[in-house]
């Protein structure tokens, strides 16, 4: 930071760093940022709360703060139908590919079959949009698998409600499930953490009978709020019994209560389950003031949960999710990008930021979003939820042993030769693997 007595010329101000680097952190991960700008150009409809342009706002903030200097940047290709077929059914994907607002009348039979309606409308390019955000998550996943990234970020992903045969809750393709399936080919145990306002039902359902994926969701639950699932008694079935953990919350939970509960549950869970990789869904609708939300969380409190998970030093896939007040969504994900890169950002938004007026009147990265609603989570209720969660964790009785021969089939992301090469890599080789990746189509380079 410059002294008030020193006045920089316009060029010097433009080149001045917009962040302070924390070099004292003991863990200095390699971070990659995966974003295809085309994904922000789609539109669910005028009255629909999901606004993909929130991704453009997020990217503008990341660029304005110059955090691109601290990450490897990738413009990923869309996922192929073959890749998405690893979880979703052929007939559903074909429907998404063929249906448009102009020909929707021809698909009257399928509209009901595939749960098309107000929440999940047919809009122009719905298949291409789904392929773009899914492709970004799969690209981020591959960087973790190859060892070229320790933390990989895709804010366009995290669409956790989509089911195998249908869309749900604004989500058409479940990029999270597809990413976890890829991770299971190289990791014995995957931990999935969801801090969206809504229950991560699509991911829980996909791995409900697996002991290799632990799904944890902190969310609003009253039995009626969408999607209507996520009670404490949903713990998994068969081999997956006790490998789903839900933390149901009431309206108005505040920063201190949320952080304390989150840390008190996640630390013993990670210690017991011993994941080798973590997938963190960072839905922004759990912030105070969200258009569809009913919590009182501020941006720093949400980020504190992500920072805590980062502190375990495990490979980490960071995804977006819900969030329906775009200016706050972009603030949050920009701030959480700074957490991943160990950057401290000025709370005043950069003057060079495009669409800066969108953030008036405060032009701040950290507006007050709390105290808008009464906190209906008394200490006794939260203590009861915590005790039940800890009892649930004790049932795990340590990490399950895994026969890595029992892995999902080859998903054709890598050739057999590439897989063998990755398995033979030592740590030094892994540091250099990104050079072998070479500038794939669309990759951002200096």
Automatic annotation (TrEMBL):
<dbReference type="InterPro" id="IPR023801">
    <property type="entry name" value="His_deacetylse_dom"/>
</dbReference>
<feature type="binding site">
    <location>
        <position position="196"/>
    </location>
    <ligand>
        <name>a divalent metal cation</name>
    </ligand>
</feature>
<comment type="similarity">
    <text>Belongs to the histone deacetylase family. HD Type 1 subfamily.</text>
</comment>
<dbReference type="InterPro" id="IPR023696">
    <property type="entry name" value="Ureohydrolase_dom_sf"/>
</dbReference>
<dbReference type="GO" id="GO:0070210">
    <property type="term" value="C:Rpd3L-Expanded complex"/>
</dbReference>
<dbReference type="Pfam" id="PF00850">
    <property type="entry name" value="Hist_deacetyl"/>
</dbReference>
<dbReference type="GO" id="GO:0040029">
    <property type="term" value="P:epigenetic regulation of gene expression"/>
</dbReference>
<feature type="domain" description="Histone deacetylase">
    <location>
        <begin position="48"/>
        <end position="339"/>
    </location>
</feature>
<dbReference type="InterPro" id="IPR003084">
    <property type="entry name" value="HDAC_I/II"/>
</dbReference>
<keyword id="KW-0805">Transcription regulation</keyword>
<feature type="binding site">
    <location>
        <position position="285"/>
    </location>
    <ligand>
        <name>a divalent metal cation</name>
    </ligand>
</feature>
<keyword id="KW-0479">Metal-binding</keyword>
<keyword id="KW-0156">Chromatin regulator</keyword>
<feature type="binding site">
    <location>
        <position position="324"/>
    </location>
    <ligand>
        <name>substrate</name>
    </ligand>
</feature>
<dbReference type="GO" id="GO:0034967">
    <property type="term" value="C:Set3 complex"/>
</dbReference>
<dbReference type="GO" id="GO:0141221">
    <property type="term" value="F:histone deacetylase activity, hydrolytic mechanism"/>
</dbReference>
<feature type="binding site">
    <location>
        <position position="169"/>
    </location>
    <ligand>
        <name>substrate</name>
    </ligand>
</feature>
<protein>
    <recommendedName>
        <fullName>Histone deacetylase</fullName>
        <ecNumber>3.5.1.98</ecNumber>
    </recommendedName>
</protein>
<feature type="binding site">
    <location>
        <position position="119"/>
    </location>
    <ligand>
        <name>substrate</name>
    </ligand>
</feature>
<dbReference type="InterPro" id="IPR037138">
    <property type="entry name" value="His_deacetylse_dom_sf"/>
</dbReference>
<keyword id="KW-0804">Transcription</keyword>
<dbReference type="InterPro" id="IPR000286">
    <property type="entry name" value="HDACs"/>
</dbReference>
<dbReference type="GO" id="GO:0046872">
    <property type="term" value="F:metal ion binding"/>
</dbReference>
<feature type="active site" description="Proton acceptor">
    <location>
        <position position="161"/>
    </location>
</feature>
<dbReference type="GO" id="GO:0010557">
    <property type="term" value="P:positive regulation of macromolecule biosynthetic process"/>
</dbReference>
<keyword id="KW-0378">Hydrolase</keyword>
<keyword id="KW-0539">Nucleus</keyword>
<feature type="binding site">
    <location>
        <position position="198"/>
    </location>
    <ligand>
        <name>a divalent metal cation</name>
    </ligand>
</feature>
């Amino acid at each position: 930071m410059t002294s008030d007595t020193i006045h920089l010329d316009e060029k010097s101000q433009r080149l001045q760093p917009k962040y302070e680097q924390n070099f004292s952190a003991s863990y200095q991960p390699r971070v990659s940022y995966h974003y295809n700008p085309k994904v922000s150009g789609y539109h669910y409809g005028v009255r629909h709360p999901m606004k993909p342009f929130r991704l453009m706002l997020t990217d503008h903030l990341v660029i304005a703060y110059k955090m691109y200097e601290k990450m490897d940047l990738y413009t990923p290709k869309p996922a192929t139908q073959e890749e998405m077929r690893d979880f979703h059914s052929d007939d559903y994907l074909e429907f998404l590919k063929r249906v448009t607002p102009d020909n929707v009348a021809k698909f009257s039979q399928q509209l009901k079959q595939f749960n098309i309606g107000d929440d999940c409308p047919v809009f122009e390019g719905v298949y291409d949009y789904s392929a773009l955000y899914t492709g970004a998550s799969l690209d981020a996943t591959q960087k973790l698998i190859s060892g070229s990234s320790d933390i990989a970020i895709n804010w366009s992903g995290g669409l956790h409600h989509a089911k195998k045969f249908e869309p749900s809750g604004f989500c058409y393709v479940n990029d999270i499930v597809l990413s976890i399936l890829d991770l299971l080919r190289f990791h014995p145990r995957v931990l999935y953490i969801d801090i969206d306002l809504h229950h991560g039902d699509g991911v829980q359902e996909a791995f409900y009978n697996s002991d290799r994926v632990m799904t944890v969701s902190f969310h609003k639950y009253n039995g009626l709020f969408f999607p209507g699932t996520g009670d404490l008694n949903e713990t998994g079935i068969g081999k997956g019994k006790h490998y789903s953990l839900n933390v149901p919350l009431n309206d108005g939970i505040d920063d201190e209560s949320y952080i304390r509960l989150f840390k008190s549950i996640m630390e013993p869970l990670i210690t017991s389950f011993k994941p080798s990789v973590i997938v963190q869904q960072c839905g922004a609708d759990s912030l105070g003031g969200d258009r569809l939300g009913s919590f009182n969380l501020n941006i720093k409190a949400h980020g504190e949960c992500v920072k805590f998970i980062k502190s375990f030093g495990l490979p980490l896939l960071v995804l977006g999710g819900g969030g329906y007040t775009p200016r706050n969504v972009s603030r949050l994900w920009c701030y959480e990008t700074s957490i991943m890169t160990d950057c401290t950002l000025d709370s005043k938004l950069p003057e060079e930021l495009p669409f800066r007026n969108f953030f008036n009147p405060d032009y701040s990265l950290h507006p007050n979003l709390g105290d808008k609603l009464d906190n209906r989570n008394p200490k006794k209720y939260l203590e009861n939820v915590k005790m039940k969660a800890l009892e649930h964790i004790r049932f795990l009785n340590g990490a399950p042993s895994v026969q890595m021969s029992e892995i999902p089939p080859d998903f054709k992301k890598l050739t057999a030769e590439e897989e063998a090469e990755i398995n033979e890599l030592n740590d030094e080789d892994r540091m250099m693997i990104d050079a072998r990746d070479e500038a794939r189509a669309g990759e951002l380079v200096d």
